């Protein structure tokens, strides 16, 4: 008799220009080490979110997806259901696919960020500036709320709800001692780029946190560190959110 083989389970990443992806390497190494011989992880690089339904219908055995820039918000209308947390955040980075092709969205970014920044926090870290207003920034805001840390957004255009980069002066830096970069500025290969800040305003009281993990130390982190700030890149956050996604896919 033929030995019955396990059903092939497929996972992947939805995004645009994602050949550099952390997720594909991380999960395939995880599958190899853990002897998950029936699992594979691929990148699904799409030019537009309109191509997303095609991925779902054409890829057989697809069980779960991660979602990255620029689709964390755009993907929501294509999903059948959202977890309570994803609904509150308004962004999705993890999707489960049922046998009947029903799609449910989750957010594991907030979990990864919250857990990874916690060890750096001290009593004086009461307010944060979030650089950028994309899907990732929403998860960061949700995590900060759960940590009882006040925050404001920084963007290239100011309004009543957010600062403009040019407005950030010494008095603002004194008040906000956590600065979080959620923009792609400084990602490989543009490693010399950094958010438009006066880096001399960073002090030993500051935390500079960058969601970017490639390069390991961005220009943003390097310049903040030179002023004595505590720094952290996004690698641990990525690992933590990936493990949370794996748990969700296997529930």
UniProtKB/TrEMBL annotation:
Q: Lineage of the native species?
A: Bacteria, Pseudomonadati, Bacteroidota, Flavobacteriia, Flavobacteriales
List the protein's name.
Answer: Shikimate dehydrogenase
Q: Keywords for this entry?
A: Amino-acid biosynthesis, Aromatic amino acid biosynthesis, Oxidoreductase
Is Ubl conjugation given among the entry's keywords? no
Q: Which Gene3D superfamilies match?
A: Leucine Dehydrogenase, chain A, domain 1, NAD(P)-binding Rossmann-like Domain
Q: Which Pfam families match?
A: Shikimate_dh_N
Q: Which InterPro entries match?
A: Aminoacid_DH-like_N_sf, NAD(P)-bd_dom_sf, Shikimate_DH-bd_N, Shikimate_DH_fam
Annotated CDD domains: NAD_bind_Shikimate_DH
Q: In which pathway does it act?
A: Metabolic intermediate biosynthesis; chorismate biosynthesis; chorismate from D-erythrose 4-phosphate and phosphoenolpyruvate: step 4/7
**What range(s) does the Shikimate dehydrogenase substrate binding N-terminal domain occupy?**
13-95
Q: Which SUPFAM superfamilies match?
A: Aminoacid dehydrogenase-like, N-terminal domain, NAD(P)-binding Rossmann-fold domains
Q: Which domain of life is it from?
A: Bacteria
The keyword Oxidoreductase appears for this protein:
yes
């Amino acid at each position: 008799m033929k030995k019955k083989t396990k059903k092939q389970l497929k996972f992947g990443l939805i995004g645009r220009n994602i050949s550099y992806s952390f997720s594909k390497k991380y999960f395939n190494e995880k599958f190899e080490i853990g002897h998950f011989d029936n699992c594979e992880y691929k990148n699904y690089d799409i030019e537009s979110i309109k191509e997303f339904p095609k991925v779902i219908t054409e890829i057989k055995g697809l069980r779960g997806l991660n979602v990255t820039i620029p689709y964390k918000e755009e993907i929501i209308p294509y999903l059948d259901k959202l977890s309570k947390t994803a609904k509150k955040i308004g962004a999705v980075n993890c999707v489960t696919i049922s046998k009947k092709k029903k799609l449910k969205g989750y957010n594991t970014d907030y979990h990864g960020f919250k857990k990874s920044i916690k060890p750096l926090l001290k009593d004086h870290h009461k307010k944060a500036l979030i650089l950028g207003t994309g899907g990732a920034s929403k998860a960061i805001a949700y995590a900060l709320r759960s940590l009882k840390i006040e925050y404001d957004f920084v963007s290239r255009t100011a309004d009543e709800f957010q600062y403009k980069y040019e407005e950030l002066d010494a008095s603002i830096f004194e008040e906000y001692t956590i600065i979080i970069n959620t923009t792609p500025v400084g990602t490989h290969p543009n490693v010399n780029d950094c958010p438009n800040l006066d880096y001399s305003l960073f002090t030993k009281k500051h935390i500079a946190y960058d969601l970017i993990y490639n390069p390991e130390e961005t220009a943003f982190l390097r310049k903040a560190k030179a002023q004595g700030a505590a720094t952290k890149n996004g690698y641990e956050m990525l690992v933590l959110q990936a493990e949370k996604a794996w748990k969700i896919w296997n529930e």
